[in-house]
Amino acid sequence: MTAFLIIIVIALLGITLWQISKVFELSKPAETSDSQVADNKDNNTQGKILLAFTVFLYGIMIYSFWSLSKFYLPEASSDHGADYDKLMFISIGIIMAVQVVTQALLHWFGYKYRGKKGQRALFYADNDKLEFIWTIIPVVVLAGLILYGLFSWSEIMNPVEDEDTLVVEIYAYQFDWRARYSGQDKTLGKANVRFIEGINQLGVDESDDYAMDDIIVNELHLPVNKPVLFKFRSQDVLHSAYFPHFRSQMNVVPGMITEFGFTPITTSKEIRKTDYMVDKVRNINEIRKTREDIAEDDRLYEFDYYLLCNKICGVSHYNMQMKIVVETEQEFQDWLDNQQTFGELINN
Amino acid sequence: MSVAAQANIDSHAHDDGHHHHEQTFIEKYIFSTDHKMIAKQYLITGLIMGFIGIGMSLLFRMQLAWPEQSFWIFDALLGRFAPGGVMEPGTYLALVTIHGTIMVFFVLTAGLSGTFSNLLIPLQIGARDMASGFLNMVSYWLFFTSSVIMVSSLFVESGPASAGWTIYPPLSALPQAIAGSGMGMTLWLVSMAIFIASSLLGSLNYIVTVLNLRTKGMSMTRLPLTIWAFFVTAIIGVVSFPVLLSAALLLIMDRSFGTSFFLSDIYVQGEVLSHSGGSPVLYEHLFWFLGHPEVYIVLLPALGITSEVIATNSRKPIFGYRAMVASILAIAFLSTVVWGHHMFVSGMNPFLGSVFTFTTLLIAIPSAVKAFNYITTLWKGNLQMNPGMLFSIGLVSTFITGGLTGIILGDSTLDINVHDTYFVVAHFHLVMGISALYGLFAGVYHWFPKMFGRMMNKNLGYIHFWITAVGAYGVFFPMHFIGMAGLPRRYYTNTAFPYFDDLADTNILITLFAFLTAAGQLFFIYNFIHSIFYGKRAVKNPWSSNTLEWTAPVEHIHGNWYGELPTVYRWPYDYSKLNEDESDYVIAGQDFIPQNVPLQDEEEELNH
User: Fold this and answer.
1) Least CB–CB distance from A249: residue in B345, B481, B494
2) What confidence tens digit (pLDDT) does each residue in A24-53 have?
3) With an 8 Å Cβ cutoff, is B401 touching chain A?
4) pLDDT value at position B436?
5) I need a surface site. Which of A282, A309, B48, B402 has the fewest CB within 10 A?
6) Are A318 and B390 an interchain contact pair (Cβ–Cβ within 8 Å)?
């Protein structure tokens, strides 16, 4: 594929160079009566090239939707994600409809009304009715999108927090993540960077009783179908906690605690079995097989959810990630019970 | 003072211009106070900066397409920042940072607005020069100084600023967090502070000139749309740039004087910093209060240029002149109340997110009106396909394509998952980067005869346009799709995530198109330089245009017109206007009526 693309581009460049040599010939000042203002012939030629360009433009749009839309993220693995995906689908539909129509008009007019000797342009300076129509249509369409968007937004950003909600702190630093669970008492212990010392890497307040049963890990496990509320804290610079598969993102800001909540609905095991993921992983493994820059043992890829940093945070920004495992309630509890609590950590 | 100066120039001009004292080389070409020379200085400085900025983008596109591979060109250009010809992660971040800074501020703000505001405001409103030629000169030399400082920051030991062009603290405030936040960032901030001073002096001058120095008969509603765009752009600049200056100053204080405006609770490199109580979100508010209007500071002049070029080359009046002016004003007003849409997921109160979604989608309405009006202007025209015209049509096309995806990004809900991905990169490059560049090129091709008294070669112009048009869409249309895959921007390489492995081919494709586009610019460079010296000599009004600059003599004279200033009798868009019985144009055999031509017998001045 890559080689193929390179060949195409080299061929295009070749054609370009060949054309250039022709142009240089044409552009020699020897030519008479050349005022460097477009004449009848130029108008005709350029109008036709404009039409050819329109074909290219629609071609690249069709190509992109045809063979690149497979890159779209899979169906959302969170509760609110379905709503998000629907709104996205509608918005793309609307903007592509507008795109197809307006680009067609623009380029078609450019071609159709290309200058001709003796052609008279229409003195047409104003039409209130037309302008009213194309003011009001965007108003109505946008009003619809805004309303839809705002309802979703307030639902997503103000999740109901009840006893069932799992509260997890996501802690960011250059260049890794940690997750802190609140433990039995369902309350996170106090923390501040000023408490960071030795093995207490997250600056948890050792004098706070609530902190003792907190559990600090570097792999995020989440029970399926249970609402999670994340509280984000950064140690050094801005980071952004981006969970693409859960349609969730929030910046992590030093000096303040930010929040985002969602309910995962698809376990890691389930999503691996979806058609989308089976195809995608097979394709990726096909590519990785031939990659010499990857150690042989690392070539085989299996999908896992991940959390990544999406706000420039330093030189290793590109590799600041944490694995996420979504599992059943039972599996989650078993896993959690095997983790060391903060109290055990500092008293060892 | 300006009035006295103007009177002085007037009396000067009445002497038939023969008594000008001989200008020395330095007065004429270097410390010139003549707006036409200053415009050329802005243009050439801007183009040189553009060359650097685009060159950088090629380097980091190579890294993205063929990550961590060794290239001799990296070795040659980046030296110790690319040991063994392999680009370092810090170098990658520095390149994207400086690319963004240079393109947004130095090319598209100063290079575009500085060039054409300076050239066209006095010429199109019928003034001898800017209100203050001296301030104008100072403005250019401050810009030049800031450019030199910005470029020199590339050569400091610890590397140039590398916290992204938005330089969010704490990353930009802490040299411990990234090497580029040392000396490089200091120079960045100094450079930008000087740049802002330059921009403010320029803008104030433009505003005063447009308000006070219009010639007789040139009412505000007879101004060409270019002038409306430059005028409103200058107002936005005066309103918003000082806020960026305050952000930069506060950041300088945080960095060097131990204040805590933006910093709080930080532990870095094994040490707790004493800063307490500041907030990076405050910086984001201050930055984007400029940052978003900045988009329109970049775009409005391009749209103004396009309006003029499309009308002239369509041989038709611009459709809906009043709606165009109204939408410029609406965009200007709304541009100052939408900054929060860059911060939906910053930790800002979600309620504010709702408000900013509302204002942001409102701004789509005047933008849509403008796009429709351009299309209608083409309808039933007699399109003269000059290179400037092609670039203007190209601008409308990329403005629509890029603008539409703004509807997704401006919606707080949808922004959650595409925020800071390549979807954003594709969006803003099309809607402001490429569109504004097209505006710049349209302006250069169209007003080159006015600037240099010679014509640019049209065939090279055509080649330049078509390569650029194909290349730009080839780069940025597929880019939306890798953004939809959740690929974050500003990643040195995507290989740390096997999930992104299947995007590699598309990244290569994008890079190849980027090279094609950049190669196309070589035609422009050749054509530009060659035409300055050897281009065909221009006639007074090569495009048969109505605006006043084409009534001025081709040769540049101090004061722009011999004798008296032209008087204006009509709006600038009387193209293809027919006489009473519609048998011929108002002026027989001529499809345009310059603004300084009085109303003809029985001609009706339409109330536009």
Assistant:
1) B345
2) 666 655 444 578 999 999 999 999 999 999
3) yes
4) 96
5) A282
6) no
Confirm if B145 and B170 have CB atoms less than 8 A apart: no
Cβ separation A146–B455 shorter than 8 A: no
CA B269-B273-B277 angle, 5° bins:
140
| Average pLDDT over chain A, rounded to an integer | 90
Q: Is A240 on the interface with B (CB under 8 A)?
A: yes
A241 Cβ under 8 Å from any chain B Cβ: no
Span B402-429, average pLDDT: 95
The partner residue sitting opposite A60, judged by closest CB among B322, B467, B473, is B473
- Please report residues of A whose CB lies closer than 8 A to that of B91: none
Residue A298, amino acid: D
- Segment B496-516 mean pLDDT: 95
**The predicted structure's pLDDT at residue B9:** 45
| Count of the separate structural domains present in chain A | 1
Q: Which amino acid, one-letter code, is at A255?
A: G
What are the tens digits of pLDDT across the range B5-34? Answer: 444 444 444 444 444 567 788 877 888 889
| CA-based nearest distance B399→chain A, Å | 11
**Tokens read off for B439:** 């505006």
Q: Is cis: bond before B134, omega within 30 of 0?
A: no
Contact (Cβ atoms closer than 8 angstroms) between residue B503 and residue B484 = no
3-state secondary structure of B70: strand
How far apart are the C-alpha atoms of A309 and A294, rounded to whole Å? 23
In a domain, A82, yes or no: no
Whether omega before B160 lies within 30 degrees of 0, making that bond cis, reads: no
β-strand partners of A166:
A228
pLDDT digits (tens, 9 = 90+) for B536-557: 999 999 999 999 999 999 998 8
Q: Is residue B244 part of a domain?
A: yes
Q: How confident is the model at residue B183 (pLDDT cuts 50, 70, 90)?
A: very high
Q: Is residue A249 part of a domain?
A: yes
Q: Do B458 and A42 touch (CB under 8 A)?
A: yes
* Nearest CA-CA partner of B255 in B176, B343, B150: B176
Residue B374 touches chain A, beta carbons under 8 Å? yes
Region A1-23 average pLDDT: 66
A27 touches B: beta carbon within 8 Å:
yes
Chain B residue nearest residue A259, CA to CA: B347
Rounded to a whole number of angstroms, the distance from the CA of A217 to the nearest CA of chain B is 20
Please answer yes or no on whether A145 and B319 come within 8 Å at the CB atom: no
Interface of B with A in 516-555 (CB under 8 A): 516, 519, 523, 534-536, 539, 542-543
Is the Cβ pair B421, A310 closer than 8 Å? yes
Could you report the per-residue pLDDT of B160-170, keeping only the tens digit for each? 999 999 999 99
Residues, chain A, total? 348
Residue of B413, B422, B423 to mutate when probing chain A, most A C-beta within 10 A: B413
* CB atoms B397 and A57 under 8 Å: yes
Tell me the pLDDT tens digit for each residue of A107-129: 999 999 999 988 889 998 888 89
Chain B CA closest to residue A95:
B404
- Please state the domain count of chain B: 1
Q: Is A203 inside a domain boundary? A: yes
For residue A203, the domain's CATH number is 2.60.40.420
The whole-number average pLDDT for the span B106-124 is 95
List the CATH number of the domain containing B466: 1.20.210.10
Given a cut of 90, whether residue B64 has pLDDT beyond it is yes
**Residue A173 within any structural domain of the chain:** yes
- Cα separation of B317 and B484, whole Å? 41
Does B556 reside within a domain?
no
Mean pLDDT in residue range B137-149:
96
pTM: 0.93
Q: Residue A218 is part of which domain span?
A: 166-347
CB B178 within 8 A of CB B93: yes
Domain residues for the domain of B69 are 2-551
Which of B380, B407, B513 shows the shortest C-beta gap to A113? B380
Indicate the SS3 state at residue A208: coil
Assigned domain for B243 exists? yes
- The answer to whether residue B590 neighbours chain A at the CB level (below 8 Å) is no
Q: What pLDDT score was predicted for residue B546?
A: 94
Task: Name the DSSP class of A39.
Answer: -
